[in-house]
């Protein structure tokens, strides 16, 4: 058990350090590719950090030999967006609130393109409602909707890449960590740092999840409780840490762009894989996970469309994950 705890803590530390290098590298990568400022977070950073959990879903639904194994993939496809819509946004609010003095901010207002984030929430909610509806019915051509989800993500990426927003003046691009003395490092160094950091994140995340599962077994926690409540938190840890690092640097625009982009990936790619390989039918915990996610998204949409968001207003959305965890615990305890 001591070894498990050491590996658990060590892998979490490795993820944090690797994320420091990743967020630095991906900002340079976006500049080298001449992407819009927000597209760096919504496309590059989100796609990179979403690869590990998408791989988990792929392995579970394609190579899973039992219905229970494939259910893990379905749970991941719903658990990921729930964690991002609740815990990740709450982390951004808390991080900005507690770093106001260090950032020399006069207020707690989040500096982002509110209208764009509100639009992202509505885009995600529309896809998510379809995704939830498919999980409640049975019909022959359901797997073909997986193609529509992939097309929806392709449209989202096309829209983001075409955006031409610029980096705000207060957001300073720090030197590349692999080449701190270079004012304009070569693309090979930028790509090398970003890919190396991503590989460490993927390996450390896998170790983190495996140790979390071992802890669940040690404490005799129900496997479904671990799969639905704890594992999604672990697999979304890179996005959450990226957001924390960017907010501490005063770059909440990138932090929220990363979360928003990761949510779009989680709403489409893992879901399409699960639709191709599973019946995609939800039990009570999955339905509650979907409803909780939808409530969180509606609340976030309401906040951002107002055009002025106090960091403290993001904190309540994190409580929704606690409500979901309590329900799942009660559900399996009562069986």
Describe this structure in words.
- Helices cover 77% and strands 0% of the residues.
- It has 335 residues and is mainly α.
- Helix 2 (37-63) packs parallel to helix 10 (252-277), helix 3 crosses helix 8 (223-235) and helix 7 (187-218) runs antiparallel to helix 8 (223-235).
- The model has no long low-confidence stretch (mean pLDDT 84).
- Measured as a percent range, the helix fraction is over 70%
- State the separation between the terminal residues, measured CA to CA: 28 Å
Q: Rg to the nearest angstrom?
A: 19 Å
Q: Give the beta-strand count.
A: 0
Write the layout of secondary structure elements.
Blueprint: H1 2-32, H2 37-63, H3 67-98, H4 100-103, H5 114-134, H6 145-162, H7 187-218, H8 223-235, H9 237-248, H10 252-277, H11 284-305, H12 315-333
Essential attributes:
mainly alpha, 335 residues
Summarize it.
This protein is mainly alpha-helical.
